[in-house]
Amino acid sequence: MTERKPNPVAIDDGVFLGRAVERLSVLIADQTKMVFDGMGVVIPVRSCSLMIVLAKLGTASASDLARELGHSHQLVMQKIPKLVSLGLIEHQADQHDARRRIFHLTEEGMMQLAKFEQCTALIRTAYDGLFAEVGDIRQFVDRTADALNEKPLDKRIHSLG
């Protein structure tokens, strides 16, 4: 009997869409960090939205931040220690629930957000140029996510057969 060897799918196949999107995400984060470094922004690239939401709310628990960001509580809690160690946010115990911590921006956090805001105009202009070259990736990603939420991958597969 001849042994059959599996015929693996190439990693650049469309089956690995998530991998391709993740590669783009890492590339964007790495290049954004270079911009941040040049402009004196110390906020971790993947924590900017958390900082913006905290600035908007004034004070918030990790659960509040997770809900506003549409992320898991666990993901928010993974980001917080770095923001605290950088002196960008502080926390205090909740007066009504000692297990809960309430977070707020520090003066340094507010100054860093101001620097970040200066970067956003430059990044937005750079993305406008990129989108002129390749199409509006953001709209494409949003439409793709909406379509998958409307009809998940498993339902798409089941409707084939």
What is the gist of this entry?
One of its GO terms (molecular function) is DNA-binding transcription factor activity. Residues 51-100 form the HTH marR-type domain. This protein has 161 residues and is mainly alpha-helical.
Descriptive account of the structure:
With 161 residues, this protein is mainly alpha-helical. The protein has one domain (15-129): Arc Repressor Mutant, subunit A (Orthogonal Bundle). It is 63% helix and 8% strand. It has helices at 17-39, 48-57, 62-69, 73-85, 107-134, 137-150, 153-158; strands at residues 59-61, 89-93, 101-105. It has a 3-stranded antiparallel β-sheet. Helix 1 (17-39) crosses helix 5 (107-134), helix 2 crosses helix 5 and helix 3 crosses helix 4 (73-85). The protein is globular. The two termini are 32 Å apart. The relative contact order is 0.09.
Number of DSSP strands?
A: 3
Strand content: 5-15%
Helix share of residues? 55-70%
Tally the structural domains.
Answer: 1
Instruction: Please give the CATH class.
Output: Mainly Alpha
Given as residue ranges, the uncertain stretches (5+ residues, pLDDT < 50) are none
CATH-level-4 superfamily name: Winged helix-like DNA-binding domain superfamily/Winged helix DNA-binding domain
CATH topology: Arc Repressor Mutant, subunit A
What is the H/E string? HHEHHEEHHH
For the residues shown, what is the average pLDDT? 92
Helix-strand makeup class: mainly alpha
